[in-house]
Amino acid sequence: MLQFHLNRPQTRMKAQAYKHQVEKEFQVGELMYVKLQPYRQSSVALRTCHKLATKYFGPFLVITRAGKVTYRL
Fold it and tell me: Tens of pLDDT along 2-21?
């Protein structure tokens, strides 16, 4: 019974999170923006204030599709 009551809110939260996910596929030749985490990624653009830095960089051209969710830009 305890296991049931511990798993129930976890499954609810998981279901709510998956409701808002959208699967997108890009074709070769399309333009796309890349979302980078400002505190981890510093090679694209150096910012003095990470909090106010842009989250999306681009647009980049999709050259090839490398995997199921990976692309070469």
Answer: 999 999 999 999 999 999 88
